[in-house]
Amino acid sequence: MKQKWKWLFFFSLLLLLSAPVHAMASENKDTGAKTAAPPEEAHVESTFDPYFNYLENGYGYISAQGSGKVAISGESHATQYVDTLGVQMTLQRYTGSGWVDVNTGSDYTNADSKRVYASDTRQVESGYYYRLVTKHWAIEGGVTESGYRTSSSVLVN
Length: 157
Prior knowledge:
This protein is an alpha+beta fold. It has one helix at residues 2-31; strands at 45-47, 55-66, 69-94, 99-104, 108-123, 128-140, 143-150, 154-156. It folds into two domains: 1-31; 45-156, Immunoglobulin-like (Sandwich), CATH 2.60.40. It is elongated, with a radius of gyration of 22 Å. Keywords: Signal. Residues 1-23 form the signal peptide.
């Protein structure tokens, strides 16, 4: 009788431990993803000093367009007209264990401006999760202020 309970316990434990692995494999197969999803992030990451005098904020957006394409855009906002306002967009791919840079675009700048906006469509490898990291900066009278923003991720098929 004791032997029966040991086998029942062992079998139950085996079923319990194999269920999440099966669910994860099924999820990737259903979505077409080549990796597991990146860890959930509670918020979009941002590094902007609240005591900046000139750089007010910046934004980065990414959306999957299908057929292995993503639309990306970034914008920077200043508190006043500044000598130079800029944004740079870096596309990243999730490898299953971390994020790697896929492409860093040119600097988009405006002179004597309060806002700069940039957008692009990029061809990427399907089956991966992508996100956008944007660098934002303002230069006024020789003072440079800069910050970064990281978007949420999207699966590209």
